[in-house]
Amino acid sequence: MPQPDNSHRREFVLGNGSKLLLLIGDITRESCDAIVNAANSSLMGGGGVDGAIHDAGGPAILDECKAIVHRIGPLPAGQVVVTAAGEMLSKRVIHTVGPVWYGGDREEAATLANCYRNALRLADSEELRSIAFPSISTGAFRYPVDQAAAIAVRAVSEEVPKLSNLKEVRFVLFDVRTHKHYVNAAHNVCTKADQT
Ligand code: AR6
User: Fold this and answer.
1) What is the CATH number of the domain that holds 143?
2) How far is the CA of 1 from the centre of ligand 1 (A)?
């Protein structure tokens, strides 16, 4: 598990002056208003970041997820729901389901962008100011990380300026290679903070 690593902290500015931070670390340790979970449609937990969030947050999160699934059924890919964050530092967990990568002709890109856009809109509607994302779909769901990074950063850079409350978006990435792809993507669509 990576330790907090400030040597990889990269800061960019989004269109409305909100901050975009790219970090390496464990998202369960983030102290921002919401963290995003890369779940599956069952919302019953799993491996990867999903397992880490349920482990760190404790059973209250799973109880809330069960109640949600009882009410609305399985969560479709690209959609989002919110629960409390249990024992973690953040206030909320926004659960989303990324697309499984099947080669790119099953609307994976649009679905992945929807995960980010819908999570940002939900956080903003809950009057949250900061949100942390993992690299959705690039683990067990096999989305190529270069393409996923470009979609993720573009969705954030387009969506955040339309919102009122969100002032900081973080990507908390688990390894150097993934971080590098997100930094490249951010250089293509955002302004680097120390250049403003
Ligand atoms: N903090 C930040 N990133 C993490 C952490 C963590 N603690 N743990 C893993 N990652 P994955 P997916 C990274 O597989 O591809 C689950 O079983 C990981 O290195 O967690 O959307 C769900 O239940 C990778 O870069 O999510 C679903 O069934 C990224 O998070 C399925 O996996 C995403 O990897 C979802 O697959």
Assistant:
1) 3.40.220.10
2) 13
